[in-house]
Amino acid sequence: VQLQACGGGLVQAGGSLRLSCTASGNIFDINFMGWYRQAPGKHREPVAGITNGGMTNYKDSVKGRFTISRDNAKNTVSLQMNSLKPEDTAVYYCNALDRQNNLYWGQGTLVTVSS
To answer: How high is the pLDDT of residue 26?
Structure first.
C-alpha cells in the first residue's frame, strides 16, 4: 500500500486547510485510515481516524474543528481543518491499517499556522 498526501501549507490562525491522502496498491484489505501529526520537538500523535464503516475518532483538542472523511470509491481520506490554531502547526501524516495489522505511512505534509 502506498499513501500520497497533499494539502498542507501556510495559513493564518482561524483559517482552514484541507488535507487529502490517496491510497494505492493492495487497498482491499485496508480497514482503517487516519492522520497523525508531529510538531517540532514532539512525538508523533494521533489526530483523527476513520474505519471502513465510517466510525471516527478525534484527538480532544481538535474535536469540533477538524473533520475526517473517507471516499472509498476514490481510496481517499481527507481531513478538513477549520479554526486552525498556531498549536496545530506540525507535519501531518496519513496512515492506513490493514486486516493483517500492517501499518502504512504516507509522506508528511507541513501545516503552518501563523498567529
So the answer is: 83
Are 3 and 108 in contact by the 8 Å Cβ rule? The answer is no
Dump pLDDT digits (tens) for 36-87.
999 999 999 999 999 988 999 999 999 999 999 999 888 899 999 999 999 9
Q: What is the three-state SS of the chain?
A: CEEEEECCEEEECCCCEEEEEEEECCHHHEEEEEEEEECCCCCCEEEEEEECCCCEEECHHHCCCEEEEEECCCCEEEEEECCCCHHHCEEEEEEEEECCCCEEECCCEEEEEEC
In angstroms, the CA 107 to CA 6 distance is 9
Amino acid occupying residue 37: R
